[in-house]
Every structure is written in structure tokens, then in C-alpha cells.
Design brief:
Elements (H helix, E strand, L loop, with lengths): L1 H4 L2 E5 L5 H15 L5 E5 L7 E5 L2 E5 L1 H13 L9 H10 L6 E11 L2 E6 L7 E5 L4 E7 L3 E6 L10 E8 L1 E4 L7 E2 L16 E4 L22 H6 L9 E4 L5 H10 L6 E8 L3 H13 L6 E6 L5 H19 L4 E7 L1 H14 L13 H9 L3 E2 L8 E9 L8 H9 L2 E4 L2 H5 L12 E2 L8 H7 L2 H11 L11 H16 L10 H12 L11 H15 L1 H10 L4 H25 L10 H10 L10 H18 L3 H17 L1
The protein binds adenosine-5'-diphosphate and magnesium ion (MG).
The site of adenosine-5'-diphosphate has 13 residues, from helix 6.
Length: 651
């Protein structure tokens, strides 16, 4: 008989009257379609209130229960810029506690931030549970007789405690007030700058925008890093993976990209997962120093935070980002890094006793990252046209990109920037491996000026890399190969870029135009860095209007290109002349000796221009060293023999 399995218990400090019992029975009949006697349990601490248990459900009319309802109502008041007092008064006057049904479960065991709970048959995956003292947790494991729940924050949940369903999934407070702040994975500020006024909550996990809600990626998200913007351009709404071993400059690329968004109205969110608090503090200080914190939010789930917080941090960051995206803003989000995120998830899963799969990760680890990265989008104009660009970071072990998590994330993203320890330690920074990096969608988003000026760069570098090995075989290189090596070396040198120095669009275009027209070939390798700076200054001085046009509309006309080339050619020979005057030991790298000699004769004397004097003192002393250094590369040594004749004759 079904009725026998049901039970109704009334808890109160005084026994119910017959009339009350009759009405409660009617209530149960109405809601459950069952007829059962009501048992009374004397509960002296429920002063003036009562609690009706019908099986798992509890109808709470105790003082405590009503206070909790009131508390929840108050928490929903979103503090805005307006005066909050009238809002409070209004809420208080209108508040009337309802008879709410709630499910209660009992904590069976707790350990390692995981609670196992009996009861709560209606709890859903991802739902937030509330424990005594306001501790919260998220349902992560559903079984027939119990459920597993991860706990957030410091907590003292014990076996036997009560857990309640809240009917809500995990949410993140969102709002413009978060800009410039450092918060934890639950949105609580940790930078000591006080509470953050939020504009509401967003669920941390929602389905990604569908096809019809998107439009194609057609605007560039410029990183300010020459080798990325020219060869692996990133578009707004794209997901570009940054992958490499530890200490190869992955974070540096993300941070430079954030710095470059200054004055571009892009909101940046940096999600630090499993990093030391000291490094994140350092990073925040750096962003602050470069004036980037005004438009940046840092979400920090430190290495010492519970695995549950590290696990939800990127989703929380994405919720915050989506808030801005749906306001029509362009947002950049960096997940640094998803390897640690996967490890946090593995820890959780193993604690929840899910069966381990490859590399002990649970079977759904691919879904972990795909549902996160699918949320990057360029929204259609009807939805405001905002965008969310993601730069996930993956740390590999000794360059092994074929491990489980790297291959997963490579296949989810729209391209990767592959950083290599070898290049990094040889001084080629950013250490981008041109052969293995790719951007699958950004090309369409590149500006015309950049597309035009970067033309054959990638191909040229690929050719250079192929021939690079030949530098080991001494003199028997033909003239073409020699030239190509010189040209390639110059390009590689040109792509070196210091940290915290993102380059503007017109500077990138000017440099590429000059370099790909082979004008820098004649400059000695060691001088390329200083030459680059002077060339750019000259370009801006001579062609200011062209530079402004490139910055404004991203176009490079034939006429403008001609002007840039003219300046580049003229300046290259001028620079070399100056260098030779200051430093007779310097030779051209180009094999064209005849022209070198003529150039020098054409300009027999002349004072070094202002600002060059400091260069002289340093370089005069180093002249001899340069000679020796040049011999290290065969190509250089070979050219040297040719160059020696002319310089010898002149000296
Ligand atoms: N382009 C660069 N030029 C000079 N130093 C760099 C450059 N990029 C990174 N570095 C330095 O290299 C170190 C490692 O960089 P980081 O971005 O922290 O590596 P990762 O995130 O890959 O571990 C840092 O000390 C950083 O300052
Ligand atoms: Mg890093």
C-alpha cells in the first residue's frame, strides 16, 4: 500500500489543534494526492513557528526559515548607483514570507572539499546547495542513493549537517564595477579595495551562442606583437591557443596583448588558474604600471585554492566577459592556463570516484574545454555586435604537443601560437615557431595594410628555416643562397621584440614594407635593433600623414607604399654611411661590394648627426669585437672576405 510509505511530521512547540490538523491534512491531500495521518513532534526550540515534513519536503514556518527567506530577498537587491535606502524600505514593506517547499538532505561524509549527501532526489547537476552557516557547494555527481557536491571556500561542514537545494545554478556577480579589480573565482574581491557594486548575476555555465546569433570574424584584435599580427593574425571572436613549455613567454604574449588594447575600447579579463598569488600580484602591478588595469579584470584561483574554485574560475571569467559582450562590447579573455585547469578537474573527478581514463583524466575532459571555448563569439548586429576573443594557454612538458590535453585544446581552438624553448634561449623572443604556428580564421580580419605589407613574410621565413642548416657548411654556398640566408637572418632579428613594448599598426606596416623590400639586408645584424628604432622614427617624421592614414583606416595605397619604400631605401644607405664613418670596421652584409664602395666614396667626410655621438664611443671600442663575432656564422664570414677588400681599400 503506497500510503504506508509516506510520512507527515509536524514539528512545533505546542500541539496542533484539531482544526489545524484538518487544514494541514487538506493541504497534503491537495499537493500530494495522499491521505496520511499527521504525527506531532514536540520541538521546543521552534518558538512560535512550525515545520511540516512530508517525506523529503519541508515547509518551514519557523522564525529561522522566515529570516532566511528575508535574507535571500535582501541579497537579490542589486546595489546600483542610486540610493539604496528607498529600495530597502520598499523590499521590507512588501516582504511576506511564503510557505515554500524545500528539500533537505543530510551530509554523510566530508573530505577534501567534497561532501556526499543523502536525500535531495530532485537536485540537478550543477545546482548550488546551501549548508548551515551559509556555506555553498555545487552538485557534481549524481547517484541513485546519494550525491557528491564540491564545497567552495573555507568551510566547516560536518557529517550530519543539513543541505538544502536552492534551485539555482552557480552564478557570478557581474558589472562594470569589476573593471580594475582582482577577484576570486566566486567574484569576491581579494585586492583589499572594498566591496564591488554589481549589476546582477549571470550563470557561470550557459550554452554557447548558436549559428544564427553569430557573424563572421572580420575585425582584427591586434596584439601589437609584430610576428603575430603579421603572420598569425587574431580576429575579434577568435580562439587562439598559446602553447609552449614553461618559461617560454606565454604569459608575456597575453599580457602584451592586453597592454595593446589600451585606447581600443576592448575589455580584458585575465583568468589565473593554479598560479602562485605572488606572481599574480606582480602581474597586476605590471598592468597597473602600464595603465592597463583601468580596462582589465583579474580572476585569480590560486594554486592553494580548493580544486573546485580552480575548476569554476574560467567559467566565472567567461560569465563576466559575456555580460560585457551582450552589452555590445569587445572583450578579450586569457585563460592562464588550461593545463592546470584540467588537472584541477582531474583532482575533483578522482575525489568524486569517477572512473579515470587516459592519463587519469575523466572521460569528459574534452567537453570541459570545448564548452568553455565555444562561448567565444562575434555576435550578430541584432544582439549588439559584441565579441569575445579567447587566448587559452597550455603548458606542455618538454615540447610534447601530442599529450592528451594539448591535442584536445589544439583541436578546439582556431589556431595556435607555438612557443619554443630553443628559440627563447637563443634570444629569439617572442619565441614563436613560425612553422608550427597557425591562425585559421584571423586572415580575413587582417587590415588591408597589414595584409599587403606582410605578403611573403611567412614564406620567406620558411625558406630561410629550410636553408638555415647550410650555414654549417662553410664557403661553398652560391650567391643566391647566401643572400637568402642574410635576408632571413635580418627578418628573424627584426621580429625580436621586447616585453611590454607592443607596436602600433603603422609601425608594423612601415617595418614590414621596408624589410620585405630587402632594404635592411645591408645593415649588420648587430645593428638591426637600433636601426629599426631609427628607421621608424624617420618614417614617422617623413611620412606622418601616411602613418596616420594606416592607423585610421588600415589601408595602404600604392602611392603611400612607394613613399614608405623611398624613405626606407634612402634611410638604409644613409644609416650605413653613418655607421661606416663612425666605425670603419663595419661591413655590409650584402654581397654587392661595388655599390658599397661607391656609397662610401660619395660621402667622404661629414660630422655624425646629433644623437649619434653616444653610439660612436661604444662602437669604436667594439669594432674589433664585431669582426670576431661576425666570423661565427659562415655566411657572414664569407661575406666578410668580400667586404674586407673594400673596407681595406678605403681605410
Ligand atoms: N619578448 C620578451 N623579451 C624579453 N623577455 C621576455 C619576453 N617574453 C618573456 N620574457 C621573459 O621570460 C620569462 C618567462 O616569461 P613568461 O611569460 O612568464 O613565461 P611562461 O608564461 O611561458 O612561463 C619572464 O621573465 C619574462 O619577463
Ligand atoms: Mg605563465
Amino acid at each position: 500500500m503506497a500510503e504506508n510509505q509516506h510520512r507527515a511530521v509536524l514539528q512545533s512547540d505546542t500541539p496542533p489543534t484539531e482544526e489545524q490538523k484538518r487544514r494541514l491534512a487538506a493541504f497534503i491531500r491537495r499537493n500530494y494526492s495522499i491521505e496520511i495521518p499527521i504525527e506531532w513532534e514536540d520541538t521546543p526550540d521552534l518558538k512560535g513557528g512550525f515545520r511540516l515534513h512530508v517525506d523529503q519536503d519541508v515547509y518551514d514556518w519557523s522564525l529561522e526559515g522566515r529570516m532566511r527567506q528575508f535574507h535571500e530577498r535582501m541579497a537579490q537587491i542589486a546595489p546600483g548607483p542610486k540610493n539604496v535606502l528607498p529600495l530597502l524600505r520598499d523590499t521590507m514593506e512588501k516582504f511576506y514570507p511564503g510557505v515554500v517547499r524545500e528539500e533537505r538532505g543530510e551530509v554523510l561524509t566530508v573530505g577534501d572539499g567534497i561532501a556526499r549527501i543523502k536525500g535531495l532526489p530532485d537536485a540537478e547537476y550543477g545546482e548550488i546547495l546551501e549548508f548551515d552557516q551559509g556555506v555553498r557547494g555545487m552538485v557534481q555527481d549524481l547517484r541513485e542513493d546519494s550525491l557528491g557536491c564540491v564545497l567552495f571556500g573555507e568551510n566547516n561542514v560536518r557529517a550530519g549537517d543539513v543541505a538544502r537545494c536552492t534551485g539555482r545554478t552557480a552564478g557570478m556577480p557581474v558589472g562594470i564595477g569589476f573593471l580594475g579589480r582582482v577577484v576570486d573565482a566566486l567574484g569576491t574581491p581579494i585586492d583589499g579595495k572594498g566591496a564591488i557594486a554589481h549589476d546582477g548575476f549571470r550563470p557561470i555555465e550557459i550554452p554557447a551562442p548558436g549559428i544564427l546569433e553569430r557573424q563572421s570574424v572580420d575585425k582584427p584584435l591586434e596584439t601589437g606583437i609584430l610576428c603575430i599580427d603579421s603572420m598569425f593574425p587574431i580576429g575579434q571572436g577568435q580562439r587562439e591557443l598559446i602553447i609552449g613549455d614553461r618559461q617560454t613567454g606565454k604569459t608575456a604574449i597575453a599580457i602584451d596583448t592586453i597592454l595593446n588594447q589600451k585606447d581600443r575600447k576592448v575589455i580584458c579579463i585575465y583568468v589565473a588558474i593554479g598560479q602562485k598569488s605572488s606572481s599574480v600580484a606582480q602581474l597586476a602591478a605590471n598592468l597597473e604600471k602600464h595603465g592597463a588595469m583601468d580596462y582589465t579584470i583579474i580572476i585569480h584561483a590560486s594554486a592553494s585554492a580548493p580544486a573546485a574554485e580552480q575548476y569554476i574560475a574560467p567559467y566565472a571569467g567567461t560569465a563576466l566577459a559575456e555580460h560585457f559582450m551582450y552589452m555590445g562590447r569587445n572583450v578579450l579573455i586569457v585563460y592562464d592556463d588550461l593545463s592546470k585547469h584540467a588537472i584541477a578537474y582531474r583532482t575533483l573527478s578522482l575525489l568524486l570516484e569517477r572512473s579515470p581514463g587516459r592519463e587519469a583524466f575523466p572521460g569528459d575532459v574534452f567537453y570541459l574545454h570545448s564548452r568553455l571555448l565555444e562561448r567565444s563569439a562575434h555576435l550578430c548586429d541584432e544582439l549588439g555586435g559584441g565579441s569575445l576573443t579567447a587566448l587559452p594557454i597550455i603548458e606542455t612538458q618538454s615540447g610534447d604537443v601530442s599529450a592528451y590535453i594539448p591535442t584536445n585544446v589544439i583541436s578546439i581552438t582556431d589556431g595556435q601560437i607555438y612557443l619554443e624553448s630553443g628559440l627563447f634561449f637563443s634570444g629569439q623572443r617572442p619565441a614563436v615557431n613560425v612553422g608550427l604556428s597557425v591562425s585559421r580564421v584571423g586572415g580575413d580580419a587582417q587590415t588591408q595594410a597589414m595584409k599587403r605589407s606582410s605578403g611573403s613574410l611567412r614564406l620567406d621565413l620558411a625558406q630561410y628555416r629550410e636553408m638555415e642548416v647550410f650555414t654549417q657548411f662553410a664557403s661553398d654556398l652560391d650567391e643566391t643562397t647566401k643572400r637568402q640566408l642574410i635576408y632571413g637572418q635580418g627578418l628573424m632579428q627584426l621580429l625580436r621584440q621586447d616585453q611590454y613594448e607592443p607596436m602600433t599598426r603603422h609601425r608594423q606596416v612601415c617595418l614590414l614594407t621596408a624589410a620585405l623590400a630587402h632594404t635592411i639586408e645591408i645593415i649588420p645584424i648587430e645593428n638591426i635593433k637600433s636601426y629599426r628604432k631609427e628607421l621608424l622614427d624617420a618614417m614617422e617624421r617623413e611620412n606622418g600623414d601616411v602613418c596616420r592614414r594606416i592607423d585610421r583606416n588600415g589601408k595602404l595605397t600604392d602611392e603611400d607604399k612607394e613613399r614608405l619604400l623611398k624613405t626606407a631605401k634612402y634611410f638604409a644607405s644613409e644609416y650605413l654611411k653613418r655607421l661606416e664613418r663612425l666605425n670603419p670596421g663595419v661591413e655590409r652584409r650584402s654581397g654587392d661590394d661595388r655599390r658599397a664602395g661607391q656609397d662610401r666614396r660619395a660621402n667622404p667626410d661629414g660630422q655624425p648627426p646629433e644623437g649619434q655621438k653616444d653610439m660612436r664611443s661604444g662602437q669604436d671600442r667594439r669594432a674589433g669585437d664585431d669582426r670576431r663575432k661576425n666570423k661565427s656564422g659562415v655566411a657572414k664570414a664569407d661575406i666578410k672576405s668580400g667586404g674586407n677588400q673594400t673596407s681595406g681599400g678605403d681605410a
